[in-house]
Specification:
Layout (H helix, E strand, L loop, with lengths): L3 H20 L5 H8 L3 H7 L3 H18 L1 H7 L2 H22 L5 H29 L8 H13 L8 H12 L6
């Protein structure tokens, strides 16, 4: 069993690494340890390599996003839940690109393979809720949706961020047609 102080250290390291690497993809392990308020030994005990730390930061972010699906569906209609969830996913993917400099091509491939199934499962859950209540068309496919949303995190962010408009178009395409 892991001690609570060890879990707290790990959480602080992940939070510090997320902030540091998002701000500066070249942040050193020592800078991250300092920001987390832990010694280098504690950092390296948890994350023996820079790549293992970056992968853990990314996995932690994906897990957080996946965990929001039940609450979003409880609080919002499926299309709105999907809009909010996708907006969060887009922001995470943009941050991931900031972390990307620290990952080898093999690590990029590994994390993509690791997260693809759970992300598709989350999209499926939201689409199925919309199909069940009649708000989302029956032929909506989670793989198609994921591929379409790939363009969103590549869209320019900042004052000219086109992703909200693009997402609105994608969601309009998912809307079930009114029956006559």
């Amino acid at each position: 069993m892991v001690r609570s102080d060890a879990l707290e250290n790990r959480a602080r390291i992940l939070a510090a690494a997320r902030e540091a690497l998002t701000a500066d993809g070249g942040a050193s392990m020592n800078q991250i340890a300092q920001r987390a308020g832990v010694g280098a030994g504690t950092l390296y005990r948890n994350f023996p390599t820079r790549e293992s730390l970056v992968l853990a930061v990314y996995q932690d972010e994906v897990d957080r996003i996946l965990g929001t699906v039940p609450g979003l569906l409880a609080d919002h209609p499926p299309l709105e839940a999907l809009r909010r969830w996708t907006t969060d996913l887009v922001e995470a993917m943009r941050r991931k690109h900031g972390l990307g400099d620290a990952l080898s091509p093999g690590a990029h491939q590994s994390i993509a393979e690791q997260t693809h199934g759970p992300v598709v499962a989350a999209i499926t859950r939201i689409l199925d809720a919309g199909k069940e209540d009649g708000s989302i068309r029956e032929d909506a496919d989670p793989g198609d949706f994921l591929q379409l949303t790939g363009a969103l995190w590549r869209a320019a962010s900042g004052p000219e961020d086109r992703s909200p408009r693009m997402l609105a178009l994608i969601l309009d395409g998912l809307r079930a047609q009114a029956r006559s």
